Amino acid sequence: MSAPAAFLLRFALPVGIGAALLYAATLSLDPYSLTILQFVGINVILAVSLNITNGFTGLFSLGHPAFMTIGGYVTAILTMPATRKTAMLRDLPSILAAHEWPFAASLTAGGLVAALAAVIVGIPVLRLRGHYLAVATLGLIFIVQSFAVNLPGITRGALGLAGLPPVTNVWWVYLVLVLTLLTCWRVKHSSLGRTMLAIRENELAAASLGVKVARTRVLSFALGAFFAGVAGGLWAHLVTLIAPGSFSILLGFQLIVMVVLGGTGSIAGAAIAAVVLTLSTEWLRPIEEAAGLFGASQIIVAVGVILVLIFRPSGLFGTAEPNVFGAFARRRRHAQSTP
Fold it and tell me: For residue 89, which of 147, 158, 154, 149 has the smallest C-alpha distance?
């Protein structure tokens, strides 16, 4: 059996189980709970894709909200009806204003434009290191928001784009989530992933062995930006609104927290941390409102991050991945061998 076929077969069972659970959720959950479920999926996409940049390659990027803004606006503009684009977005090129794109093509275009922006920005910016890179990617959020505000003929400026088609649903979100997980898993367990991890551990040693450090860093930056752009498009069509301030600096820090808690380099760790933090924040909101302790959930998360950094700096899983099926197989063999 070829390696790609074995890879798909290995993930066929969990994907099938997940699809069955998702179908059951659509039948049993109310619309509010389904919306929360979609936000959980979007946050997992964001955390796992940020892990490509921050976890695999060791970059400290805070720029995911900027790429979400780019992808969200591109997707929103492409899916809008042509009559609305003609009336609202007067500076839009005619080739875009005259057509309404399908949702899948619009999401892909949003991700590709975000990845292109990452390449353009990444070539000069990724020469920086550490907190200098963090500040530069933080500034990218302000730059993108400024463009969105000052291009009213294309983005409607500070008013944003409202009344978008509500085409995002749990199936779209979790289809993209599965593709994100599969892509990240393949990257991590390929020669490219080993190259990224080598750069993270010792950039000078990797360069001395002939690794194209700059090219690999830009590639990881662009790959993470692609999925961030797609997630921005999903978010915009879930909320049916996108504005320059939809994705703030706070979101960038929240995503960093998810990656750090899960383990920089662990796909499963980032996914689990994203699920736990998203749900815990939502569950704590009624308690905050009832007690009048607004912002308590952020304090709890901050304390949790501090404790993890003190007692387990590598995060929940470090760079490892839990081998669930291997554990079940070992337990089964042990049960069969026991008289």
Answer: 154
Tokens of 166: 């509500």
H helix runs in the chain, sequence order = 3-28, 31-51, 64-79, 82-88, 94-97, 103-125, 130-149, 152-155, 170-188, 191-201, 203-208, 213-239, 249-262, 267-291, 296-311, 324-337
Q: What token pair was written down for 78?
A: 């492409």
Mutual orientation of helices 296-311 and 249-262 as an angle, nearest 10°? 40
Number of domains forming the structure of the chain: 1
Chain centroid offset of residue 258 CA: 11
pLDDT tens, residue order, the chain (339 aa): 555 555 556 677 777 888 888 888 888 988 989 999 999 999 999 999 999 998 888 888 899 999 999 999 999 999 998 888 888 888 888 888 888 899 999 999 999 999 999 999 998 888 888 788 888 898 999 999 999 999 988 999 989 999 899 999 999 999 999 999 999 988 988 888 899 988 888 888 888 888 888 899 999 999 999 999 999 999 999 999 999 999 988 898 889 988 988 888 889 889 999 998 888 888 777 777 777 777 677 777 778 778 887 888 777 777 777 665 444 445 545 455 555
Q: Which residue range(s) make up the domain with 84?
A: 3-248
- Whether 230 is covered by a domain: the verdict is yes
Q: If DSSP codes are grouped into helix, strand and coil, which group holds residue 63?
A: coil
Is pTM beyond 0.85? Reply is yes
Q: How far apart are CA 310 and CA 312, in angstroms?
A: 6
CA distance readout (Å), 268 to 31, 63, 136, 238, 254: 27, 22, 28, 25, 17
In a domain, 321, yes or no: no
Q: Is residue 219 part of a domain?
A: yes
Q: Does residue 12 lie within any of the structural domains?
A: yes
Q: How many residues does the chain have?
A: 339
Token pair 């993209």: residue: 176
